[in-house]
Amino acid sequence: MTAGVLLVLVPVIVLLSYPRLSNFDWSTARTAQTMRAAAEDAAASGAGEADIVEALAQRLRSNGGSLEEWRLLGRSYFNLGRVDGAEQAFREAYRQVAVGADAQLTADVAAEYAEAMILSDQRTLLGEAGDLLERSLDTLPNNPRALWWGGLGAFERGEYGTAQGRWERLLAAPQMAEPSQMREVLEQRIAMASQLAARNAPPPAQIREAMTAASGPEAGEGASPSKASPQGAEAGDASGRLQVRVELAQSLREQLAEQDQVLFVIARTPGGGGPPLAVVRRRSSELPIELELSDANAMIPGRGISSANEVEVVARVSASGNAMASPGDLWGSQQVSASEGEIITVTIDQVTR
Predict the structure, then answer these.
(1) How confident is the model over 257-286, as a mean pLDDT?
(2) Which runs of consecutive H residues, i.e. helices, occur in the chain?
(3) Per-residue three-class SS string for 273-306
(4) Which pLDDT score is estimated for 230?
(5) Whether the predicted model's global pTM rises above the 0.85 cut
(6) What is the pLDDT of residue 346?
């Protein structure tokens, strides 16, 4: 898996899981009477689904509601894509169930609340929501929702074996018996966890921190410029150093004429497998630019340019400022020997589609 995927792993998982898992009918529990009453309140004015849900929310806020009514409201908000409303509804449901309720019911509601928190703020996966999921799995080790998100939490912590085990249990659940997009997603995540476990890969969070450290602060914010190619210096040697000149093709210059965007210069193994061997971040306004890529810019100690025989040098202007390629980014690449003895010229002449 590329470092770019690791960098944005949580957002990608969230985007994949929301339409495929959050709306999945893990539980058949419904409070039909409450929904019918809310629908009758809104029907006279020709209300649609969103109006009916808001009528239900207003009823519960004004008159109070039962545990199942708040859960129903949370699920209804999920169906509308209203993650903020879902989080508030499940928070109230969890508040009610947490007071002397059955342990299994508490664990089930805790998983719902944790999911809503994660979708509202991904950082909670490794915080409060993650703790709720672990407690939920202690009581309900086969709860599908807790297995999915608990597996993702384990994955983020670098506990790839635990993540794989949880996702395999979910894959074996009755809900997953038939082929579906959810099943495909699970199979992909299981394979990914297995590969990273075999490589003893560091946690994704550690890789992201390493990328941030390797990239350094933005130009103009106190960062010292990367060292340019010194006169008479040899470009490649045993210490793992490459001197790179990055240019922008004439055909693309108009696109950056009045813009100043992030420029990533990355050394990686050809084909992009594994984390980059070196990363430097500058600004597109500096183009054309000469800089040095070396083992000092490695994301993972011991896995720098000197550890490879062939290197692909990629220069990319990122409109979003993210390390992962996005549509509209400008880029170019050049594959060279890791011991190249002259300045490597990379021309940015392509556009990511």
Answers:
(1) 82
(2) 3-7, 9-17, 32-43, 49-63, 67-80, 83-97, 103-120, 128-139, 144-156, 160-171, 181-198, 204-215
(3) CCCCCEEEEEEHHHCCEEEEEEHHHCCCCCCCHH
(4) 33
(5) no
(6) 96
